């Protein structure tokens, strides 16, 4: 009896400690300010890819280029303008596919634009502004490959994709005859494809178009269709920490403006060769998440 009381007491103490921790965590969040607080304070930490040409790329001189870089820069500057704040300094953080939810949840970045598809399980962990872009899963093969022409020809082949990405999951779920090799980044998949260690790379058409343009003549993009329909729909969102007051609304407002003032089309033209694989989406409509 005594023992169980003691356990109950220490459980209560633990609960109290946990509550205190939560409270401290809350205070920390307000100290780092969330997205709006960071923009107001003049320095915001944003996540993107570092190795995806045309989307998120860290250039040799350290500068950042790509559609996602331009979109999220536009968003934070638009939020600053709306509030009468200076445009903030941006600190970039590389956010590979498998790390995105974690770095948002632990506050290492205030927002992510990183070819980040909105889906159910991710929406349980983080919030999404957008979607601001729609693309579809496709294949990248060596340009002299005449055999891989679509879904059926993948049977028995070695396919590369990235850990924690939606295309990798889709392959596991629907193509049991395919040998999937998962890497941390798409650029390592591209090298494996170039060296003949894998037969194809699968991810979003936007990303594959960027790699194909980077090495002219080496690779080609092959569409993936199932019963005449796109194999997947990849709706890109701006990842945000849950319970970041005002952030979601402000981001969606900025994305509306991005579409209506012509900036999105301009960024697509500037970053993606022929706009390959890019469709506009419906900002604020998350009805496809089931
Ligand atoms: N859009 C897909 C995803 O979010 C593939 C691209 C990526 O891994 O970043 O998983």
Automatic annotation (TrEMBL):
Cross-referenced InterPro entries: Bact_solute-bind_prot3, SBP_3_CS, Solute-binding_3/MltF_N
GO biological process entries: amino acid transport
Stretches assigned to the Solute-binding protein family 3/N-terminal domain: 43-275
Leader peptide range in chain numbering: 1-23
GO cellular component term, pick one: outer membrane-bounded periplasmic space
Keyword terms, alphabetized: Signal, Transport
Family statement drawn from the similarity comment of this UniProt entry: Belongs to the bacterial solute-binding protein 3 family.
The protein's name in its UniProt record: Glutamate ABC transporter substrate-binding protein
Organism: Corynebacterium pilbarense
């Amino acid at each position: 009896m005594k023992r169980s009381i003691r356990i109950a007491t220490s459980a209560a103490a633990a609960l109290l400690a946990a509550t205190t921790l939560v409270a401290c965590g809350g205070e920390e969040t307000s100290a780092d300010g969330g997205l709006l607080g960071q923009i107001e304070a003049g320095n915001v930490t944003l996540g993107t890819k570092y190795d995806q040409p045309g989307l998120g790329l860290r250039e040799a001189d350290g500068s950042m280029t790509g559609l996602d870089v331009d979109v999220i820069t536009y968003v934070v500057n638009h939020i600053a303008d709306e509030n009468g704040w200076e445009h903030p300094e941006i600190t970039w953080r590389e956010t590979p596919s498998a790390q995105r939810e974690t770095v948002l949840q632990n506050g290492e970045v205030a927002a992510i634009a990183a070819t980040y598809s909105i889906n159910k399980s991710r929406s349980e962990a983080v919030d999404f502004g957008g979607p601001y872009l729609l693309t579809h899963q496709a294949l990248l093969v060596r340009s002299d490959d005449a055999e891989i022409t679509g879904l059926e020809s993948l049977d028995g082949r070695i396919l590369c994709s990235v850990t924690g990405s939606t295309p990798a999951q889709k392959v596991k779920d629907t193509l049991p005859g395919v040998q999937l090799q998962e890497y941390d980044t798409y650029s390592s998949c591209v090298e494996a494809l170039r060296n003949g260690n894998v037969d194809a790379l699968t991810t979003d058409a936007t990303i594959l178009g960027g790699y194909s343009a980077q090495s002219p003549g080496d690779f080609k993009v092959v569409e993936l269709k199932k019963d005449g329909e796109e194999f997947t729909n990849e709706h890109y969102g701006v990842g945000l920490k849950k319970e970041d007051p005002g952030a979601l609304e402000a981001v969606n407002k900025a994305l509306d403006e991005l579409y209506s003032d012509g900036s999105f089309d301009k960024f697509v033209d500037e970053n993606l060769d022929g706009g390959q694989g890019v469709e506009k989406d419906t900002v604020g409509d998350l009805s496809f998440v089931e």
